[in-house]
Every structure is written in C-alpha cells, then in structure tokens.
Design goal:
This protein has about 300 residues and is of the alpha/beta class. The protein has helices at about 30-45, 55-60, 75-80, 95-100, 100-115, 135-145, 155-170, 175-185, 290-310; strands spanning about 1-5, 15-20, 45-55, 85-90, 115-120, 150, 185-195, 210, 225-230, 235-245, 255-260, 270-280. It contains 9 helices and 12 strands.
C-alpha cells in the first residue's frame, strides 16, 4: 500500500474506487467494508483507495470538546495496509479545508486530482463547507463528472458508529475483552519507557513507566491488567497498572508494567503493549506488605489470562 499525506501529493495513473471516512480503530466493521472495497476494485480493474483526515475533523471543528482516538495515524496506516488497500490518502484537515465548497472539493480534488471512478460512502455522508452537501448531491456530481456512487446501508453505517463508540466506552471502563472482540485484536498502545519513582523495586516488583507521546491516544480506564509487550522484537508477558498509586499517596496517573522473566535496561525504549485482560480495580492498601500480597495474586491472575489465550 502506498500512503500519501495529502490529496495534492497523490499520484496514480489508475482510476480509483474510493471510500472516505475517519475509520478510527479499523475495527471489525471497518475491516469488512475495506476488504469489500479491495475485492470489488480488483474485480472491476480499479485501484482501491481510502481517504481519511488528520487531525480528526472534530478536533478542528469542535476544539473545546475532548476527543480521544483508538489509533494514531501510524497505527491506522498499518491496519489499513493489512486489508489489501492500494492507496491511503491522509488529507490534513484544517479550517481552510473545512471551508471548501462541495463542488470545488468534488471537481478539483476527487475528479481532477484523484481520478475517482467510483465512490462507496455511507447514507449519512456529508461534505463541503459546513457539511451542507449530502448523498443526493454526490450522486448529482457523479452524473455530472462521470463517476459512480454506491451507498452503504443505514444499518451498516449505524453499526460502524456504534462499534467505535462502544469500543471507547468499553476501554474507559476497563472492558478490554469486549474491546478486543469488537476490534478483532487486542487493544494496543505505544509509548516510551521513562524514569519513575522506582517504588516498585523496593517490594520486588520493578516496573517500567510508560509515557504515551500522542495526547489524543485513548488510555484504558484505571485498573490492573494482564498484558504482553513487544520489546526489541520479542513478546514479553507482564501485568500493568494504570492509576495514581494511592497506597503511596500518588496523584498523577501513570502507566506502569511489571514484566515476568525479563532482565535488561528499558529506559528510553519505545515499546508496544497489548491489553489482554482486566484483573481488578485500583485499590489503596494499608501497607506496602498488603500491596505486595495483592501483586502476587495479580501475577497468578495474569498467568490465568495468558493460559486462557494460549500464550506460553
């Protein structure tokens, strides 16, 4: 798959079967649609293409509303590439782009630049300045400029919307198993190992403190989780705490992972972590000894999750 980071950069001599959307999470519903586009394009002698936007349009149009995403643009790119799509076009979304009138957007960008032959969009697809144009307008432009328009059903689009919202809600409440079911894979995030307070090593559980650099990446809710992390190309089992360390009077949220059967200096390394199971809520213990007992039980529970998933 080739990726272009603006419509202006796009180059191809092949007419496109194009779909447009944010596709946050590239969950099972998205995967079904994008796989359909890839196969249809091949059957019809077209190139398959996805047009998406960065940053997310809501961040630009509603800057005062917090927006947390299931994927960074790099994660989205990798997920779409796995589905057989030929081209990914990531259009920078800013105020100027949002103010393009519908016909300019269609004629100058979709037709002249992208050479669209067919578009597959949702029944609620809107475009142009203030999102004033709808599917009927797109059909009219298609007839005028010579491209075909196909519509996803309301049922399909509603399912895609519900899934994205449901995944975010599930993760924020610690339901990583439900999120995995909807995504078709464990939820993951990438971060850098930074120096922490090093309290874990005093009770025999030294942890790696993870800092996620993308502020808009959604972090699961507070609690203890069974995880695996990719470290220097190897998958390492661990248990993760997302919380404030209330037992020692902490107030700032941290992400800390204790790794089983691992030795080595992790500081400065960038690692990807997959959330496999929720173990328990964060708790404040009366003593470090009580915390240590709880961590021993967390370790047993983590291995139960690994065994259930066939991870040895």
């Amino acid at each position: 798959m080739q990726t272009f980071f603006s419509i202006a950069e796009f180059q191809s001599t092949r007419p496109l079967l194009l779909t447009v959307g944010t596709f946050d999470g590239v969950h099972l519903g998205h995967q079904a649609i994008l796989s359909q586009i890839a196969s249809e394009a091949e059957e019809q002698g077209l190139a398959s293409a996805v047009l998406t936007f960065h940053p997310h349009p809501r961040m630009v149009l509603k800057p005062n509303e917090p927006m947390f995403l299931l994927q960074t643009i790099e994660e989205k790119q990798a997920a779409i590439a796995d589905l057989g799509i030929d081209y990914l076009i990531v259009q920078p979304f800013d105020a100027a782009f949002s103010e393009l009138d519908a016909e300019t957007y269609v004629k100058q960008l979709l037709v002249d630049k992208l050479q669209v032959s067919k578009m597959l969009v949702g029944y609620d697809h809107r475009f142009g300045a203030k999102r004033q144009a709808d599917y009927s307008d797109l059909q009219r432009f298609g007839a005028q400029y010579g491209f075909e328009v196909e519509q996803l059903s309301q049922q399909t689009v509603d399912a895609l919307t519900i899934s994205s919202t449901e995944i975010r809600t599930a993760l924020l409440s610690g339901q990583v198993a439900l999120a995995e079911k909807l995504l078709g894979r464990p939820y993951d995030f990438t971060g850098t190992v930074v120096h922490g307070k090093k309290l874990g090593r005093t009770i025999g559980y030294p942890t790696a403190n993870i800092e996620i650099t993308d502020f808009h990446k959604l972090v699961p809710g507070l609690g203890i989780y069974a995880v695996i992390s990719e470290i220097d190309g190897q998958m390492v089992k661990g248990m993760m705490s997302i919380g404030t360390n209330p037992t020692v009077g902490g107030q700032t949220r941290t992400i800390e992972i204790y790794y089983f059967d691992f030795e080595g200096d992790l500081y400065g390394k960038t690692i990807t972590t997959y959330c496999l199971g929720y173990l328990r809520a964060e708790a404040k213990f009366e003593s470090l000894e009580q915390l240590k007992v709880a961590l021993e039980q967390d370790a047993d529970d983590s291995y139960a999750v690994f065994n259930e998933k066939g991870i040895h």
